[in-house]
Every structure is written in structure tokens, then in C-alpha cells.
Amino acid sequence: MSADDRMRTPERAPRRDTTVPDVLALLRAELGERVDVSPASLEAARADKSGHASPGRPLAVVHAASVADVQATMRIAHATGTPVVTRGAGTGLAGGANTGAGEIALSVRGMDRILEVRPDDLLAVVEPGILNADLGDALAAHGLWWAPDPASRAISTVGGNIATGAGGLLCAKYGVVRDAVLGVDLVLADGRLLHLGHRSVKGVTGLDLTSLVIGSEGTLGVIVGATLKLRRLVPGAVCTIAATFPDVRTAAVASAAVTASGIQPAIMELMDASCLSAVHALLALAPPAPGQAQLTLQTDGPAAIVEADAIAAVLRDAGGTVAVSHDRAEGERLLAIRRSMHPAMETLGTTLIEDVSVPRSALPAMFDEIARIERDRSISIPTVCHAGDGNLHPNFIFDGPDVPPEIWDAADDLFRAALRLGGTLTGEHGIGVLKRRWLADELGEDQWELQRQITAVFDPTGILNPGKVFTP
Amino acid sequence: MSADDRMRTPERAPRRDTTVPDVLALLRAELGERVDVSPASLEAARADKSGHASPGRPLAVVHAASVADVQATMRIAHATGTPVVTRGAGTGLAGGANTGAGEIALSVRGMDRILEVRPDDLLAVVEPGILNADLGDALAAHGLWWAPDPASRAISTVGGNIATGAGGLLCAKYGVVRDAVLGVDLVLADGRLLHLGHRSVKGVTGLDLTSLVIGSEGTLGVIVGATLKLRRLVPGAVCTIAATFPDVRTAAVASAAVTASGIQPAIMELMDASCLSAVHALLALAPPAPGQAQLTLQTDGPAAIVEADAIAAVLRDAGGTVAVSHDRAEGERLLAIRRSMHPAMETLGTTLIEDVSVPRSALPAMFDEIARIERDRSISIPTVCHAGDGNLHPNFIFDGPDVPPEIWDAADDLFRAALRLGGTLTGEHGIGVLKRRWLADELGEDQWELQRQITAVFDPTGILNPGKVFTP
User: Fold this and answer.
1) Where does the chain cross the membrane (chains A, B) (predicted)?
2) How far does A26 lie from chain B, in Å, by closest CA?
């Protein structure tokens, strides 16, 4: 099956043993007022923050308040063959939680309690709906910290972070979600509850299903709880380094030089000229010089100051104009520019945000490829990049709700370039609906089929997020 | 199905469409002199370092020198329904690579090349048969390091470390194998080759099958290559702290106090009095005081000296007699005592090495349980412990090749105590044959069945390491 065939394949039709009114009646009988069919709620459940939406509206939004609510919903869905899309805060960027006609939107956003914090064991047990930033605030009171910090952390849930295998700004130094989850409680398609993983630092009993669930985008079960691996807050100074470069390629070469120097910054973010202009406009800052690209870095821990000075020297040698700040507030102000990237893109039009990740040494070559695609296709691709881990977010901007064919073609060109450079389709956003057409190109047909069979072990009747990630 | 039922269930009989001479003839026709039927090789393939062996001898040992050799072997095994047990250096401690009658021992020990080292991308691509310590030596020349360091690192292979999800001494600070592998090349039961994972820091394309393979103990495929996530060698001093305590419980409380203090040592090892005596005898050192237990710790990185002093203060407050050394050679000498633990146990008799792991705060309670089991059953259970991550190795010593029923009963008591304390059956050694009877007790029947179904997706005819981990 070619990628084109997959593009033409319609989404898997749900098995239906029951009529829609029956499903609603069953849900209401079990869950009462947690079943929400208000037009505003149904409309909101169609979309995430990718700017893309399902063609139709779901049957209902179920606002689960407990594991039992989730199990009841899944038992009804299983019995009636009704598809279920699990949703947190709806901040995904690949359409993975978009819910369409005939489907139940199962929201776990209301399950937002912290059940346990253990400073002595460096773990916390949480419900999936808690916001990443709210968890961070609660943990800080104990001197603790859950490292994954997607740019969306103020508005995205921990459950969503786990379901997408979210990344963030600190990954090169402090790891990705996979490194920070010890266990997951999972409700299966038929409503049974499994406890995956462990509470200890080490544990190799059986297959590592916790890791399998991380990044599975709602295709294996509903995450109803998580045991998180915590860190202690890093003591000492935080230094922020801002460096501007005459063009993006020079900035990319400079970032690769930092990585090659052996000093590990906590954060190293790159913004190209289009991004920088858009953010400066959004924040009402003075416009940057034409073509100017920016690197923003932070160092932390006991060697923060020494490392910041060493990095500044590398960046100057690479042609940068460099300023170092030891002030935390100033550092936050500089990083706010980076965190405003997504809202700034939204001001320009509808965006298709790509998420390719390449080995760090290939970063300059990847920016060359982006420049080539811009030239070849006469389009602008504003790009921001987690330069410390080689993860780029090139943004394709267009008018209207649907991705035009020429934008899909440009995205295809971009993805194939990343693959040629040893990279991957998605570093942290997931496949969802927006990237599913390329999944088999990266995995190969054999692995694609094997993965699909694994999802069928968890979900034999195909009711969990059908049409996402794997399209038959 | 109860644990007792599982204990009585015989190992799964291999499907056989062909006679033994046919299988050998097919292997020889494809692989020539790589097919080894010498009595010494067949005998060696029956056992690992657990001290336990399969009842019979395998059909043959195939010494694979390439991915193509592995694929050829698996195609023949698949066509003839012959079970295959993958082996590295045979240093496992759970019997996972023990090969018995009617089975092919597929050794990848000869595939020991380093294919690529990328300091700029902090990755290496290796074949599975390279010894962990040999890889370490080669990487050190680049200023690099693969963090997983099982106590067996001088004699165990990287492929075996991945297949068992091996741990080691440095896990609390520097992570386990799962944290240090980006991708795995896997030959499936039918001989097809899959490339799992990625070369970039981030990557969430599809399900995380790399993590699923880590710790799968030869049940999902044959690991023929790995892309490893490296660290830079940690610069600066290494400080070693040795502390003795009047009894093991005081030492355990002291180690929990170090963890709770928020200082993260690189290594924190605990040895009880029986272990310490046995190792001192093996190394011809003066005998320790009766009942004396020992903690050995190391700190590293830019704050090593400050942290060592702070840890020493915590240990003294907890009743320890403490010595701090800033000399690397002296530190290595102190750690050599810990690394001699397994050889020392071998001098006492046959050992059944347990591997329970508990949340770090539960360490003193777990030592209380071990003392209770020793009292109740009038046995000695020499115990060494990776105290930094709550992973204990209680050793049951007995005469002769087979575990006596009363030792199985004591091990059962121990495991159930660990589970009550929020722990797990195996922190780093794996299930193999020695712990399979308890697997469903920890996972629950539903998860056990789900995991078994996942193995069937990879290995539909059940030829990969049958009878290990999952017993039907």
C-alpha cells in the first residue's frame, strides 16, 4: 500500500450494533449529567490547537470524574461498538484528539487531582487531567519538579503529555516524557483497568507496557492515572544567553558547535527571522533586523555561570552577538519570546506545524533543506527549533480551514528531507491525523503492520481513536 | 490460573515439522562451520551465570557473524518450527538464555563491532555481542560513555544488557538501559529485519517498540544492532565515601536518609554482614566486625567534593563510621569489594539470586522482612543492595544443582513482602525461568494475558525462547 493509497482510504467506519439514541440513553443512565450534548461542547470537541477539526460533531462529550466513569463509558462503547476519543485539554497539534460524527469524546480533564507526592521516593501519583504547570506549582512547594515541559505546559495536561510522548525545551539535558514516567493506569477498550509499570527506580518484570502507552495517542487505552518520576529542583543560578546571528544558517551552525563543545545547556532554542518578526509584532517589541535569527540558551546547576561563559565564547566564535544575563526574571522575559511562538503563528493564518527531528549534527543541513523548499515553492516556512535536541517546528501558513494540496506537497518534501538526514517525522507532537499519511514511509510496511496488530491486541474491535495514527 | 498451576505446567513443547537431522542439515547448508555441535559448546549453552541449567542439551550452537546469519537461522527455525534461544556472553542471572533439548542456541557474541561513534550527536551504533566494558574503553577515547553499568560489565554484552533491561550501580543518577537506547535492529521470528526507534534525541513516530524490546528477554526477536544514547564523561573529581554500621538496618536507614536529603550520589551500595564477610574472605582481607554492614558511595561532577562532605555528615548523624577519599584509585579499590559480591557468593554454594526492587523509602522495611524470613526459616540470606535505587539482591545459598522446595518457599515469601511494600519482582535481572512462576502475581492475570498476546504478534508460532518469562 503506497502513501497515496493511504491518503485516499476513508477513515475506518465504526462498527455499530446500536443506534445513536441508544448509546446516549445508555451513557445517561450510567453517567447522568456527566453526559454533555450542548452544541458548544460538541463543537469544541471537534478540534485541538492544530487549527484542524473533524468534519462532524461527536455524539456526546462525557466529562469523567473518576476511573469508574471512564470504565462505565468504555463498557458502553464496547458493547455498542461506538468509537471513543480520549481528550485532555485539547492542546494537541496533530489532530489526535479531534472527535467526529458517531464518536464519544471522553474528557478526563476533570480528573485533575494529585493523589500522592513522595519527596523521599521522588515520585508523584496523579490523575491525567491535571495541567502540567499546575502540577509544577504543587511540586515546587516540595522542592520537586516533573521535568517534561512542552511549550504548552500552562494549558496542556499531564495525561495528554503522556499520550503524545510530549517533549519540550529541556529535553536534551533533562529527558523526554518516556524518561519521566514509572507507571500508567490504563482502562482498556472493554472497560478493564490495568496497572502498568512500577513505583521503584528499577523494574523489568514482563514487557515495558508503560513505555508502549507513552506516545500511543489514545489507541491502546484511556490513561486514568500516572506514577511520575520526579527530580529535585535544580539549586543555584540560572544563566540566560541570548545571541543574534545575521542569518538562520549561521545560528544553526553555532548551535551545533555548542553541542559539539560538550557543554550541555538546559535550554537551547533557535528562532528564524520570520518567527522572530511575528513574535516581536505580537508582543509589540521593536522589530528585529532583517534576516536576523536568534539563539536563546539557559544553563543551570552548580556550574551554570562557568558554562554560560564558555557557551558565550563558542557563540561569539561562531559569529553571534551575545548577551549573558544572570537574572532569573530577565531570563524568563527572554524565554517568553520563544514561548509566544505558537500564538504568533496563529495571527498569520491557519498553520500546519511540522515537527521533524534530526540528529543534532544535521541541523544546519536541515535548515538548508528548508531554505531550498522555500525557494523551490515560493513560500515562507517560519521555523522555530529546539536546537539542543535537533527538533524543528517549521510552520506552513495558509488561509482557510483546510490544508491546500501544495502545502501537503511542501510538507512531504520537508519530511523526506528529514528522513534522508537520519531524522524522524515527529519529535514530540505525535502522528494524529495530520501526519498519518507518512507513518508507513518511516516505519516501513512490516513495522507498520506489526504496530497495527499490537493496537488490535489492546483494542480488538477498533473503537479507540479510530482513524488516528494508523489508517488501514 | 494460580501460581501453583503455572509451576506444574510443563514447558511449551516446540512445534516440529521436521526431524532434528533435517534442521541440522539445513543450518549447515546455509551457515557451514558457524554451526557448532561440539559437546563442550552444547554443554555451555545449557546454562548462564545463575548456576541453573536446562535439563537437556541444544541441537546446535550457531555462531552468527552477521545480520544475514541471524536471518538465515531464523528462516530455518521458522520453517521447521524449531525453538531458538538467543545468547550473548551467557552472564544472565535468571536462566533466560539457558538452552535445552530440541532448541537452537543462536549466539550473537561474535557480532561485536562498533559501527559508528558520533560525539557530536552523542550516539553510537553497535553490534549486540560487544562487551559493555569493551565499549566503555572505546568510547572513553572520545570522551564518551554509555551509562548502563551492570556489575557484570566486564563480561556481559550490550545486547544482553538490552535484552534483560539491565541496571547497575549508577542508575539512580544516570538512568537504566531504557534511558540509554535510541533504537534497536530486530530480526523477527520469521527472519525479517526491522529497524526500531530513531537517531534523534526526540522521536514519537508510532508506538515505542524500542522500549518494548528492552527487557523482553529474547521473546520478541533477535537484537542484531543498537543505537545507543551516550553521555560525555563526567569531568572533575570522584569522591568515594565508605561508611560502616553496627547492623544492616542502621545502614539501610542511613541510605534512605541520604536519598531524602536531596543529594544524589552516583553510586550508593549496601552490603550486609554475610556479604561483607564472604567478600573479605574471597579477597583475603581482614574479616569485618561481627554484624557490621557497609555503605559505599561515590559522588561525581562539579559538586563532587561538597556533596561528599554533605553525605558524610548525613551518614555520621545516622550512626556510621565514615571515611571520605578523593583518590580515584582508592575509590576503585573500595568498589572492587562490591563488585566481587557475585564471585564471593559462588564460593558458598549454589545461589538463587533474588532481585526485588522497592521504593527507596521502603528499604529499611524490606531489610526487616529479610530478617524476619531468616528468623522464621532458620536460613541466612546474604544481601547486597543498590541502595540508591531500592534494588536488593538477597542470595539464597544451597547445595547441589536444583533449588530445594524450602528455598522456593523462602523466595516466595520474600517476593510477596516486596510486592506489599510497593515493589517489584525483578529490578534488573529479568524473569527468565527462575522468576516466571511469580510473573502473573505481579502483573495480574489480565495484564499477563495481554503481554502474552503481544509476544504472539511478534512470534506467532512461539519459537522465540519458549518457556521463558511467560509459561502457558
Assistant:
1) none
2) 26
| Residue contact A455–B171, C-beta within 8 A | no
Inform me whether the C-beta atom of residue A200 falls under 8 Å from chain B C-beta atoms: yes
Name the minimum distance, in Å, from the CA of B166 to any CA of chain A.
8
Residue A212 near residue A278 (C-beta atoms within 8 A) = no
Quick one: fold of B3-110? 3.30.43
Q: Where are the domains of chain B?
A: 3-110, 114-232, 238-420
Cross-chain residue pair B206–A179, CB shorter than 8 Å = no
B222-229 vs B123-126, strand pairing mode: antiparallel
Mutation target among A205, A255, A419 for the B interface, most CBs of B within 10 A = A205
The whole-angstrom separation of Cα B417 and Cα B108 is 38
Q: Where are the alpha helices (DSSP H) in B207-318?
A: 209-213, 248-261, 273-282, 304-317
Q: Fold for domain A11-110+453-458?
A: 3.30.43
CATH number of B114-232: 3.30.465.10
> Mutation test of the interface with chain A: which of B164, B188, B205, choosing the one with the most A Cβ atoms within 10 A?
B205
Kindly indicate whether the ipTM for this predicted assembly is greater than 0.90, answering yes or no: yes
Tens of pLDDT along chain A (472 residues) come to 343 333 333 344 445 555 666 999 999 999 999 999 999 999 999 999 988 899 999 999 999 999 999 999 999 999 999 999 999 999 999 999 999 999 999 999 999 999 999 999 999 999 999 999 999 999 999 999 999 999 899 999 999 999 999 988 888 899 889 999 999 999 999 999 999 999 998 999 999 999 999 999 999 999 999 999 999 998 888 999 999 999 999 999 999 999 888 899 999 999 999 999 999 999 999 999 999 999 999 999 888 999 999 999 999 999 999 999 999 899 988 888 888 888 898 888 888 999 999 999 999 999 999 999 999 999 999 999 999 989 999 999 998 878 899 999 999 999 999 999 999 999 999 999 999 999 999 999 999 999 999 999 999 999 999 999 998 6
Nearest to A151 by CA among A323, A307, A301, A279: A279
